[in-house]
Batch of 2 targets.
Target 1
Amino acid sequence: MVEILPGIFLAITLELSIPIIIAAMGELTTERSGVLNVGIEGVMLSTSFVAAYVHWAVSYLPAEFSIYVAILGAALVGMILNLVLAVMSTYLRADQVIAGIGINVFASGFTILALFVAFRVFDTTPTVVTSYSLSPLARLPNFGPVSPFLAIMIAAPIFTYWLLRRTRFGLRIRAVGENPEAAEVAGLNVYRLRLLATALGGLLIGLAGAYLSVDFSPRFVRFNSRGLGFIALAAVIAGGWSPVAVVLTGLLFGATYAVFIQFGGISGQILSILPYIATVVGMSLASKRLRAPAALARPYVRE
Amino acid sequence: MRGVRKTFPGVIAVDGVDFEVSRAEIRGLLGENGAGKTTLMKILYGMVTPDSCKIYLNGTEAHIRSPSDAISNQIGMVHQHFTLVPPLSVLENVILGLEPVSNGMLDTQKALEQLQLLCKSTGWSMDPNSPVEQLPVGLQQRVEILKALFRGAKLLILDEPTSVLTPLETRELFQTLQRLKEQGTTVIFITHKLNEAVTICDRITVMRKGKITGTLSKAEVSFDELARLMIGRPIHKTFQKNPSTSEIILLECSDLWVRGDSKKDAVRRVSLVVRSGEIVGIAGVEGNGQTELVEAIMGLRKVEQGAVRIKGNVRSNVRPLDVINSGVAHIPENRHERGLILDFIVSENTLLGFQFRNEFSTRGILSKHSILELANKIIRAFNVITPSTKTLTKNLSGGNQQKLVAGRELSRSPDLIIAAQPTRGLDLAGTEYIQSLLVQARNEGKGVLLVSADLDEVLNLSDRILVMYEGRVAGELHASEATEETIGKLMGGVHA
């Protein structure tokens, strides 16, 4: 039996909750507008590669610049990929689930191909300098290395909550996600709002992707997103589309990961299914009492 | 509006109509379903693009191509199907699309003040923070009206606003409309109910088959004249019924308790009896347990307590097929959801519920010939107008879809017919036909349980009337002693 160290357990929990929660907030914003992004895994995978690639490509810059350029690049690509999905599921009236699966398939093939084209390797990119060594917080005494992504993890849910509850844009997102027909009658542009919400969501998913290759591990390896995108998708559902509950769910999923990482070995292998079991259990419990945005995944066709 | 014309593929919806309405007037727009009333008004509201139309507001030509154009021209419309966002609050629904903001954030304070002002002008009090999905339909409708007024509507179009209201709520709505009129608002009131049009409107315009057949002022209207303009012939309101004397009990519910979707008790201790040769009407505003009651009888919903007996045998909590096989036909409340598979062709829909019978399949292979024969038999016997048996059911008109459902159910030769909102959304001719089928079945000695939110229908057809309110039977009346007044009170929870 391996002893569980509370400090390390907490650290691993946070490390894994960061990408889940940030990506889940992106997915939440998208879904509240009525667009289901099943392609979240693919977007995370692609942006994770983009971050590593951009960092390598601009390595002539000073490290404190190149890392942020890499992160911004990933966020931008996340927005673009999500926009592709949004255009398909609004103007082109594609089935959102199929479009999302398309993005996932595309991403898994594309990143492998790109690895080879860019680096002539099949498995992993050169090491990226980790971002928290650049973080101002890291220089505080007794604070230890703190990732700036932790700040994003805390800020993203607060921002999402504020956006949805307190702003005009948020009210309109909720309206088009629940009843696009009514929103249209009220004079709103359903497609444009869905596009904006999805783009904003893509930005967050891109940040989560960047985290995986510049911070969580300092390189991009094949299938670097590790199913965390799907876990984030599940967290949104299990958390009932409410920012607060989604954060708690994300932390819970992170903690189950931490359990199996601490155990390691054979028992670790067996325990590695824990997060997935937690997801399945969480989702089946949730689906009974929770209600999705009414227009989720339903293409809206203008009369 | 001048020279309005709109054709849909295969139909002329509005055929060269000129329509005008003056300031601070309540104008009725009366007509059957499909007469073109709603289309005409949707053109005015910019939701339907006409083939030709010129719109003049206060004497100058206005170009209205979208609802937002209409809104900026101070035109508001309350649709038959509400355009509210259910989980959002009253306030959020009212301000949506026109939200007051300060520094990019919603200015809730200002919005509240504006809402209160509107409430004052209509004479309503509303809780601005309750989600509209938790409000009864009558209040939801008020939210719709407030929404239109918030957008500055001086011309308010109401599409069949009373179809979801109790008689009391209808009266309250009429009071508010009068009030708005006194404040200078023009109201166009779309309806197919003659008596409502006569009660509230200053003038009534009647449409039939896309054309205006007449405009009458309040002083000169008569029911007969309106009905003639509306359907082109007088209506016969009464049905030939022979006295019912049978004592054979076909359906008996005793102390029935059923839960609704939200796990709350929807049906509370309901007992009722349907005998052979009688129509028992269940009146009540929708959502008072009627749906759950019917589903429990049909085996579609669990009976918590009490029993359903069909011809003396206990039939609660059995499979729907067992109920059907006991000789029960069901005309479901929502024909699109439970009555038909819209993406199936006509002959597939006529087969539903018959598919187990051996004559329609041999060892799992459908026998085309006998299926077609059945479809043709039903189509002929019940006047279903369809291009062919291969037509997709969703392409039939509402009336013909309902004839298809009713025809299919009645051709099972049932003893008991459960008809839930059988004439909802049908025009006068279709309504008359379906109602005559029910009366005919009754006269043949069958039992009919008729659930309807349409008070006239219940009063016209039933031998006995039960009123449901909040899951209970609020009262039971014999047809001879029932009036709109007494039932209306029971429907609204007032004890008679």
Note: Chain A touches chain B at residues 166-168, 171-172, 174-175, 178-179, 181-188, 291, 294, 303 (CB under 8 Å).
Target 2
Amino acid sequence: MIPFDQLLVQAINGIVTGMILALVASGLTLIFGIMDVVNFAHGELFMLGAYVGTTIFVTTGSFWVALLGACLTLAALGAALQITTLRPLLGRDPLTTILATFGISLVLQNYALWQYGPVPRKITEPITGHFQLFHIEYPWYRLLIALLSALIIGGLWLFMKYGTYGIWIRATTQDRLMASAMGIPVPWVHTGVFAIGAAMAAASGVLFGPLVGVNHAMGFDFTLRAFVVVVVGGMGNLGGSILASIFLSLLEAFASLWVSPAQAVIVSFVVLILTLLFRPTGLFVPTPK
Amino acid sequence: MLDLQDVHTYYGKSHVLHGVSLEVSAGEVVGLLGRNGVGKSTTLKTVMGLVRPAAGHVRFEGRDLTGLAPHHVARRGIAWVPEDRRIFRLLTVMENLRTGLDRQGMTEPRKQELLEKVYASFPVLRERRHQAGGTLSGGEQQMLAIARAMTLTPKIILLDEPTEGLMPRMVAQIREIIDVLRRDGVAILLVEQNVPLTLEVCARVYIMEKGQVRYRGSARELQANETIIQQYLGVSA
Amino acid sequence: MTRRGLAGPAGYWVGFVVVLGLLTVAPLVLPEFWRRFVTEILIWGLLAMSSDLLIGYTGMVSFGHSVFFGLGMYGTAAALLALGPPNLWLALASGLVSAAVVAAFVAYFATRLRDIYFAITTLVFSQIFYVIIFTWTDVTGGENGLTFSQPPFSLPGLWSGRFTPVTLHWFVLAVVTLSYLGLRRITQSPFGMVLQSIRENEARTRAIGYHVERYKIVAVMLSGLFAGLAGVLYAIQNKFAAPDFVLFLVSGEAVIFNVMGGMGTLVGPVAGAAFFLVLREAFSRFFPEYYLIPVGVIFTLMVVFLPQGLLGFLRRRLNA
């Protein structure tokens, strides 16, 4: 029997990583929903965001400047990638976009290796205190991550719900042609969504940075996790992705009480396969009437 | 104001428009009649830039629209009410209207004023403003589609079969709206199957067949000409 | 490579014989490094052809071909390490069986899904097997993989002896050529026609009355089997099996070969593999570890501007 305190610690760990993942996955699902693009390079944007964060952190010494700077830099990069590579592919087979973004992911990953080298880099967390959680010292920073992620996601939700551009994004997601006939500049909405997705991935990367060393290979892992989350949550469904992120991270956290964290990933994969087989529209979407 | 010259349009390899020419003057209500599948809707889509013509020109207020993206066409003052309405189903009625209201150069009082005007024409939309577009009835969706087009304050509305499948009461209401728009000086290019309604509201009429305009004339002339109506539309007016 | 479709069937067979002749003579005239290089092109070319059966002919992009390739390697290793004296044919059979078992498993689940869902599912399956192989150190050697000595080259009743680089090349060439002819036969058979009809319009194919899922399962299994065969050859050439080859990157490379060479042509992906390896070799001279930066840029550009790949491009130019 696993003691209660360990279960609780794992639950908190699961929620913290779940929130990080939710930031990455909500960008991915937003991009998929609006332009049918499965962004294979999404984890790479997360990784590059973390690296840009380390660079800005080293120069300015401020975690917050690093967070903001990484978001802005990656938003610009995301917009540039969308305009140069994905815009010409609009209307082609969605599989073509998976191939193109796969190409981008190769370039970005190896660029990071070239630019930053194989030694992991570290960002220092803005708060270093701990609090007593049963027998262990639990870092406040982890709770801050969960809180900041929740704030960013909440901000995104408000923006999508009430902002003019949010309405443009939702209208374009539902009916691209009608949206453009209403004077909405659809190509730029696509670019904007890609930039927002990239910025959220970057924010996630910078927040995640202090927990582990930033390295060039961390992106693929997150691409894969984000794919799993987005499918389990229902493709293009923002709320579903967020719930699925937390659900799967909790499962993995509990699974790692018995098996190594490397093996715990399999739990998520199994959930994905079961979801696809039995409820392919996603676990966290209402049953279509 | 709107002027199509010898427009040819293809869907993939199938040739849909074989040289369509027509014009609509400012403030004029013009009908575009014809059987199903003769290219009426495609003509409207070509004007909007939703499909690109392979040859010919679309001019609006003397400027060439050919090859322009739909959102640029919309910003020039052309609004489209599609045949299948294409309401943003998951957006509320209010949000549907905001897709047209929230654009550059619109001040908050101006938006309010426009919104009031739209609600005055379609009181039911005010009642349903927080309801998702997809939950409206067919007639309400049609009104929302027209209201949404009105929020663009267009110079011309391309109205595609607005009365299709509606109850007579709704048809009468759509008719009234066309009159309101005409009084406001908005031009309308009306695609319809309902010949009597078209002849009533339009000053001039075009009849299309097999991707070409085969007849043009005033509504009054056409009304008097049973043979033409029989020949091209297969109905009696 | 071969000039299929340029000058009718006769021209095709002339081209086939010429290329086969060149590849047979190649190890005799090339220096050691390039001899090995050509052998590798053949092995990766086989992997490329196997995934072309899915990507190009059936319209299913697999991002999990590494699992079949890798299991081919591990199956070979198992036979050579655990089953009596090393025997080439036993190793081959063991590698194929391993790949086939995994292929059956993946096929059963993944074929229920289409498009990107299929792609993601195959990727996830390969990742599951990667984690199992990576962490099950007692059996698989974990991170270090398994090493073994090369089995002797035996043709029962004909010849027996150690592999030399030249005989290994011929062995690989023979296997790859037979596989190519087999795959070509498959794609031109009624079965292959059904696959292509699934690619063009799945709903219509189903409406005509074909059991689409069954065809897809067989397609994935055949594809997995040939990918496993490529893994066997690679294991025999390099005398090891390692988890790196189950990892996603190998699957990604298989997709790159297809895109670069031209999907749905069989020879195109082989040309794509050759092109990729040449690019890698060329760029490695300048940027040893970062060759994937320029290769990735070229790949992305080809996806956008040259969707039919090199072969499609050449064919269009030559026909014009």
Note: Residues 4-215 of chain A form one domain.
